[in-house]
Amino acid sequence: MGRWLYARRGSQIAVIRLWPRSLVGQLLLIVAMMLLLAQGVNSFLLYRGAQSQNLIESSTAAVSRIAFGLDRQANDRPGRRGGAMRARRWGQLKYGSESAVTDGMNRLPELEARAGQAFANMGIGFSDIRATFTRNLTADMSGHLIGANRGEWRNNPINRSMGDKRMPPETRGYVIISAQQADGQWVSIASVVRERTPLMIRTLLFQTITIYLLMLIPLILLGRYISRPLKSLTARAHNFQPGDSEDLAEQGPPDTRELIRAFNAMSGRVSSMINEKDVMLGAIGHDLRTPLAALRVRVENVEDDIERERMIAGIEDIDHTLDDILSLARLGRSAEQADPVDIRSLIETIVDEFTDLGHEVHYQRGDKQSALIRETLVRRALRNLIGNAILYGKAADISVEKSGNKLMIHVDDDGPGIADDKIDAMFEPFLRGDASRNRATGGSGLGLTLARAIARDHGGDIILQNREKGGLRATLELPIK
Fold first, then answer.
1. For the segment 168-203, what is each residue's pLDDT rounded down to a tens digit?
2. Which of 81, 106, 188, 272 could form a disulfide with 178 if both were Cys (CB 3.0 to 4.6 A apart)?
3. Alpha-carbon distance 261 to 250, whole Å?
């Protein structure tokens, strides 16, 4: 699925973007994922440590109870009062010839080593010590358990009145410690292992929220500090026009400032190159049109009418081609301001021009639509599209529709159309559907190139597609601002 998540809502499928587009969003998402991964590893380690600590606490209680029971057994005098109550409260040791930890149980060497060290520190010697953990206590050990009555003790009204209102954690299992005395007799005791996971989960949640706040808030501020100048730079690059004299203000961290400085220098070089190109094209246009005009005057004196018309047509062909080249080269530097224009009226004016010349052009008049355009340039683009439709299809059918925030001007013809694999190539300069270089059969080959350049200069485009019923549809796409 990559960056996308598909979720079904009723009968519709909603597409949710998982990977943010902005730099700040991507940075925050990566940091959040890394923090979540780190917290996951930390939580796993803490959980394992807590489980191990619970076992150690239970085994410590069992070791203490064995040591206490042996000491009381050695020091209690016969008939001493309170012995039965103490045995019930502290648990009763199990004595027997066999260990309560059998060979089939999973022994815990670490607990056994800790218990042996604890007994040695208390001066108690055992020939063998065994420890195990079990989920369910065996029947023979049910009467030899410590830690099982904590809930009863804490829920006692007297103890609850003293402020101890906490409920004991749930029982996770039991630790059984069995030690062999010098005479071969085994003494065993079981201790309850409590589950403290809820408290640990609350602690981890609090820790995670604290880390996220401490890390992500400064990162959000840093990301905005970095992204704000980048957004300004992106907007300036999108709206760049040759000749913009105002430099973009340098702001943000040093790397971003250096990027903005480089962009300002680049835009200055681009503007200088375009200015030099315009000067050169103006000189070329002047130098070529002057001899063409003189040649046209001389051609008028040619006596052969057919030859004279051919010469005049050739001169006009050169003049029109030169005009197309200069218009294409100077596009984007037009002094004409964009104004709101009624597209319907504009199309009607162009249609009247073609019908007055005897061409078959139809316009499906629709609702009034207005767009912010340079009227002279858009008029030229439409003329080129309609001219191509008449040239290759003998007639043109024009319609206008609104699609979202775009205005689509369709020019349909009933000509042969264009092969799908050659549609993109038709926008290349001097490439025409007719292989000849005669303007009467196809022009200079700059019509579509110039029309698309005009459309893109307005933020739109030219789209060519073959019609199902035959012919070609050329669509001039203009944004509605």
1. 567 788 999 999 998 899 999 999 988 766 666 777
2. 188
3. 7
Judge whether 198 and 192 are in contact, CB under 8 Å: no
Which structure tokens are listed for 260?
């903005």
Residue 45 token pair: 């380690």
Q: Residue 68 is inside which H or E element, if any? A: helix 23-75
Query: Residue 137 sits in which domain range?
Result: 53-76+83-200
SS3 195: strand
Which run of H or E residues covers position 175? Answer: strand 170-180
pLDDT digits (tens, 9 = 90+) for 47-84: 788 788 888 888 898 999 888 888 877 776 555 555 54
Of 468, 423, 471, whose CA–CA distance to 448 is shortest? 423
Determine how many CB atoms are found less than 10 A away from the CB of residue 175: 27
Measured CA to CA, the distance from residue 187 to residue 325 in angstroms comes to 107
- Whole-angstrom Cα distance, residue 42 to residue 289? 81
CB atoms within 10 A of CB 79: 6
At 226, list the tokens: 């970095």
Nearest Cα neighbor of 73 from 139, 124, 143 is 124
How confident is the model over 78-106, as pLDDT tens digits? 555 555 445 444 458 899 999 989 888 89
What number is the average pLDDT over the span 355-383?
87
Other residues' Cβ atoms within 10 Å of the Cβ of residue 66 = 25
pLDDT over threshold 50, residue 360 = yes
Q: Which run of H or E residues covers position 53? A: helix 23-75
* Least confident segment among 101-115, 175-189, 271-285: 271-285
Secondary structure percentages of the chain, helix, strand, coil, to 5? 55, 20, 30
Average pLDDT of the chain, as a whole number: 79
Residue 351 Cα to chain centre, angstroms? 48
**Inter-residue contact 93 to 189 (CB < 8 Å):** yes
CATH number of the structural domain spanning residue 395:
3.30.565.10
Choose one of 200, 216, 231: the last residue of a domain.
Answer: 200
Q: Is the dihedral of CA 415, 418, 424, 429 positive or negative?
A: negative
**How many domains are contained in the chain?**
2
Strands 170-180 and 186-195, bridge-based pairing: antiparallel
Q: Assess if residue 222 is contained within a domain.
A: no
The pLDDT, as a whole number, for residue 152 is 47
User: Which of 165, 200, 235 is the endpoint of a domain?
Assistant: 200
Predicted pLDDT of residue 84: 47
The first and second tokens of residue 303, run together, are: 């006596």
Of the CA atoms within 13 Å of residue 204, those in its CB half-sphere come to 19
The span from the CA of 170 to the CA of 163, in Å, is: 20
Residue 6 predicted with pLDDT over 70: no
Please state the φ and ψ torsions of residue 138, each to the nearest 5 degrees.
Answer: -70, 160
